[in-house]
């Protein structure tokens, strides 16, 4: 897996909205953060326009992303918000120049399509990390600091307290993943995630329990768990109870879906749609250790 060059102070970074419209005050907040890091933010043309829930038309958002990918002065491209929209344009984006001059793509939620696309098609790493829209919930130092470390290539490792449903074990492999529903929707497209020999990260927000089960079942039937080395589960935010009640917690639903496999499973990693969203470098090798004392994740890209 190719890791794009890590950032240095003075680098230009693109800011785009390829999915939903983002409130201007959160864009201003992101700009201030990037400048404090010594970076030069470059706002794309998708910042500001609005068409329904989208940040402008499909053509505008596609062209904006294309420009940021092709501009050699831009060293990273940060998404401002998730929602929905990348699936509508991803097959119209030309990644030829990006293939030979890769740069960090940053975001989560709908950005899962970008992550799995560049990893599967181009063998290139990217970063799941906090976005401008997250500033609505306030500035969470640990989330933004972890993103800064990931972008600048600093040491990145985490420890998480033990969860009663964890399945103990160790694994060393490349990390991939993202939002469960989007990984499921990407099946059969060029953006489909390749999980063979990988550690898979999953998180989800706002779904009913039966939907969580259906997404997991779909991935399972597609063979996405067959050759996994490990499963890292992030935040399962605002998962809704069914009527009649489903009868299991979201964590129990996940554990049931992978019960016949023997890879380690770790719950409770603070990444996803919750208040804290720690950065993860998808496409980088990691060491995952799930013990009775807790879970540790260490990236080994340096």
Automatic annotation (TrEMBL):
CDD domains attached to this UniProt entry: Peptidase_S66
Hydrolase as UniProt keyword: yes
Keywords per UniProt: Carboxypeptidase, Hydrolase, Protease, Serine protease
Q: Name one GO molecular function term.
A: carboxypeptidase activity
In terms of Gene3D superfamilies, this protein maps to: Class I glutamine amidotransferase-like (3.40.50.10740), LD-carboxypeptidase A C-terminal domain-like (3.50.30.60)
Q: Where is each LD-carboxypeptidase N-terminal domain found? A: 13-129
Q: Which family does it belong to?
A: Belongs to the peptidase S66 family.
The UniProt entry's GO biological process terms, in alphabetical order, are: proteolysis
Please list the residue ranges annotated as the LD-carboxypeptidase C-terminal domain: 173-288
What name does the UniProt record give this protein? LD-carboxypeptidase
Give the source species: Rufibacter immobilis
Active-site residues per Swiss-Prot or TrEMBL entry: 109 (nucleophile), 203 (charge relay system), 273 (charge relay system)
What PANTHER family does the database record attribute to this sequence? MURAMOYLTETRAPEPTIDE CARBOXYPEPTIDASE, MUREIN TETRAPEPTIDE CARBOXYPEPTIDASE
Against SUPFAM superfamilies, the record matches this protein to:
Class I glutamine amidotransferase-like (SSF52317), LD-carboxypeptidase A C-terminal domain-like (SSF141986)
A Pfam family: Peptidase_S66C
């Amino acid at each position: 897996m190719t890791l794009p060059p890590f950032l240095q102070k003075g680098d230009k970074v693109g800011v785009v909205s390829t999915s939903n419209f983002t409130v201007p005050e959160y864009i201003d907040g992101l700009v201030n953060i990037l400048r404090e890091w010594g970076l030069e933010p470059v706002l794309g043309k998708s910042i500001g326009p609005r068409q329904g829930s989208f940040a402008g038309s499909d053509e505008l958002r596609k062209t904006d992303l294309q420009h940021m990918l092709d501009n050699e002065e831009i060293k990273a491209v940060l998404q401002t918000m998730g929602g929905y929209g990348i699936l509508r344009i991803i097959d119209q984006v030309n990644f030829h120049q990006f293939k030979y001059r890769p740069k960090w793509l940053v975001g989560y939620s709908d950005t899962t399509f970008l992550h799995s696309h560049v990893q599967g098609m181009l063998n290139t790493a990217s970063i799941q990390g906090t976005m401008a829209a997250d500033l609505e919930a306030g500035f969470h130092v640990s989330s933004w600091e972890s993103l800064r470390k990931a972008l600048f290539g600093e040491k990145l490792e985490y420890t998480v307290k033990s969860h009663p449903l964890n399945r103990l074990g160790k694994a060393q492999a490349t990390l991939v993943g993202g939002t469960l529903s989007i990984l499921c929707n990407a099946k059969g497209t060029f953006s489909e995630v390749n999980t063979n020999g990988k550690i898979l990260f999953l998180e989800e927000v706002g779904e009913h329990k039966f939907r969580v089960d259906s997404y997991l079942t779909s991935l399972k039937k597609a063979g996405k768990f067959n050759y996994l080395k490990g499963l890292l589960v992030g935040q399962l935010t605002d998962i809704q109870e069914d009527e009649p009640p489903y009868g299991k917690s979201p964590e129990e639903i996940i554990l049931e879906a992978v019960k016949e496999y023997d890879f380690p499973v770790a719950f409770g990693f603070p990444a996803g749609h919750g208040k804290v969203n720690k950065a993860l470098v998808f496409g980088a090798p990691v060491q995952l250790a799930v013990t009775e004392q807790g879970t540790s994740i260490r990236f080994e890209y340096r």
